Amino acid sequence: MIRRPLRPLARILQARQSGESTEAIERENLRHRHEEMRERLRSRAASRLKFMSLCFFVAFSLIGGQMAVLASSDAEEPTLQAEGGPAPILSDRADITDRNGRILATNMETYSLYAQPQELIDPEYAATELARIFPELDVERLRADFTGDRRFLWIRRQISPEQMQAVHDIGDPGLLFGPRQMRLYPNGPVASHILGGSSYGREGVSSAEVIGVAGVERYFDARLRDPYSPEPLVLSLDLTVQSTLEEVLGSGMQLMNARGASGIILDVHTGEIVAMASLPDFDPNDRPRPPTEGSPADSPLFNRALQGVYELGSVFKIFAAAQALDLGLVNPQTMVETRGPLTYGRFRINDFHDYGPELTVTDVIVESSNIGTSRLALMIGIERQQAFLGSLGLLTPTSVEMAEAPTGRPQTPDNWSDLSLMTISYGHGLAVSPLHLAAAYATIVNGGTLVTPTLLRQDEPEHGERVISPETSDQIRSIMRQVVTRGTASFAEVEGYNVGGKTGSADKPRENGGGYYDDKVISTFSGVFPADDPQYVIVISLDEPVDTSGPIPRRTAGYTAVPVAAEVIRRTAPLMGLRPDVVRWAPESIHQASH
Fold it and tell me: What is the pLDDT of residues 170-205, one digit of tens each?
């Protein structure tokens, strides 16, 4: 403890009485004052240090407690908005790839262009130059906007690097750029109907929300925008097979003078869509606007393979034969009456040729007899026919992972009469999409278990409900093979791949009712390869084809859809790992020997 000095005046008086020097006393007083001040400062510093230590202890305790709570709770997506405000704009979007990891859709950094008219130095010059860089802009409208009261104006939602440099060269501080991501489809029109396309949703000057507008982009929109699922969306498509299908289909459509075309290749065991095309198509990088006039089916946005529902003709005869065989009503060699015409009231059912009084069940399909198939349907009956077609998925929309799937709803008769029973057996009176047909054929040829088409890559076969027996499936594949080796689909023979299939040439119904056209058809080939060891189903459909290579115009599937399908198989089978078989499977020789 410091001893306090005497009061200065008293000490000086005492010093004078004792003869001491007052100067020494003043120095001593000064020293004591300095020591007292230092003690006071040390005491104050110690108090502050204790207070700060307490504050740090409280703060770290709170932080540690909060971290413990977060560690023991479920993760939640962080949000940046103020309470009650709009959600933040999430601009990231996951890639889409084919089954082998090749990019189908990805993102690219780009910029938007906007203006703050109040900041423009020379509005007239800026408007003129922008109209030169972007010819679609109206220069007079720009001048009016730039010289009016507007404080903000979007010029372009996205621009190329070259356009950005050209705008930058204008040199006006009122023209500004905002960073954003754009969706890029590096393969252009390839798989355009499947991918669908994207657009901008909510947007600001520093970011924009990319949203799917059609196809898988729209169907999987939430998954693609989920920041906690950045992994690519892997589709079942094979990009090489898809591009080959589109190339051959486009050439066939042009060669056959068709109005439109569609094609599907589907794995019969997994239901995977390896390729699916619709022509005409579009480039999703520059997606056109939906048409405001005319038929939607004429738009390149219309997916004929999924949205288009058509009466597909004789390809349906396979279903009647399969059901009759599976019910035990007939066997492949059972004779069926084909004497015609077959009358029902005022309606007459005829064949394309006179096939004589009777044919075997096999030859009813090989020769494509309407009368013979109708008699099989009469054996089956309405209720069993409806139930069987329903079990094949032909009476409801497909569940494939595309936004447009619900619109591909089959058209069924209002009154499923005996006449409907017969006409549906050969492909009239019931309209379905080519994808419906492909899935149903896969079920028939894969051993008889239901196949559900999918656009997602699968790791193992699908084991659906049994629809027909394995024995019936074998019999049908044998019949389909004979359609190619000695029937209406002879042009489908591809050396080494034992193709089986069925043709269908359906007259198109008139738009306003009143029957069918005489010179407009939907021609379709639905096949399997290899038929002796089924791996893939193929469906090729042409809208209003006309083969003009010969002296007489030909419209039937055997001359139009079949050659296109053969070329697709010839070029895609090796791409899918199928090696040619040197042994030609000809089941008709086996049947003839046993008969």
Answer: 999 999 999 888 899 999 999 999 999 999 888 888
Give one DSSP letter per residue of 428-465, joined into a string: -S-BB-HHHHHHHHHHHHTTSB----BSB--SS-----
The pTM of the full predicted model, rounded to 2 decimals, is: 0.81
Chain mean position to CA 498: 32
DSSP label at 212? E
CATH topology of domain 96-234: Penicillin-binding protein 2a (Domain 2) (3.90.1310)
The CATH number of the structural domain formed by 240-288+302-594 is 3.40.710.10
Residue 505 DSSP SS3: strand
Distance of CA 228 to the CA centre of its chain: 21
Q: How far apart (Å, rounded) are the C-alpha atoms in residues 507 and 522? A: 7
Residue 104 forms beta bridges with which residues?
Answer: none
Q: Is 420 helix (H, G, I), strand (E, B) or coil?
A: helix
What is the rounded distance in angstroms from the CA atom of residue 107 to the CA atom of residue 184? 6
- Residues 518 and 146: their CA atoms lie apart, in Å, by 60
Q: What are phi and psi of 394, to 5 degrees?
A: -90, 0
d(C-alpha 538, C-alpha 89), whole Å: 43
Phi, psi of 525, rounded to the nearest 5 degrees: -125, 125
- What are phi and psi for residue 321, nearest 5 degrees? -65, -45
- Rounded-to-integer distance, Cα 267 and Cα 277, Å: 15
Q: Which amino acid is at 265?
A: I
d(Cα 493, Cα 530) in Å, to the nearest integer? 11
Pairwise CA distance, residues 176 & 211, whole Å: 24
Domain segments of the chain as ranges: 96-234, 240-288+302-594
Which residue matches tokens 């800026």? Answer: 126
Give the model's confidence band at 79: pLDDT under 50 very low, under 70 low, under 90 confident, else very high.
very low
Per-residue pLDDT of 295-333, as tens digits, reads: 888 899 999 999 999 999 999 999 999 999 999 999 999
Which backbone phi and psi does 479 adopt, to 5 degrees? -65, -45
pLDDT band, very low/low/confident/very high, at 72 (cuts 50, 70, 90): very low
Please, which pLDDT band fits residue 80 given cuts at 50, 70 and 90?
very low
Rg of the chain over CA atoms, in angstroms?
Answer: 40
The closest alpha carbon to 369, from 436, 314, 322, belongs to 314
**Is the alpha carbon torsion for 539, 455, 259, 393 positive or negative?**
positive
Secondary structure of 543-593 as H, E, C letters = ECCCECCCCCCECCCCCCHHHHHHHHHHHHCHHHCCCCCCCCCCHHHHHHH
**Cα–Cα distance between 106 and 183 in angstroms, integer?**
6
Residue of 83, 95, 86 lying closest to 210 (CA atoms): 95
Question: How many residues in the chain?
Answer: 595
DSSP element (H, E) containing 276: strand 273-279
353-374: per-residue pLDDT in tens?
A: 899 999 999 999 999 999 999 9
C-beta atoms surrounding 453 within 10 Å: 27
| DSSP code at position 187 | T
> Which among 239, 275, 576, 213 has a CA at the least distance from the CA of 455?
275
Identify whether the C-beta of residue 591 lies closer than 8 Å to the C-beta of residue 365: no
Pairwise CA distance, residues 541 & 555, whole Å: 12
Strand intervals (E) in 49-149: 96-97, 103-115
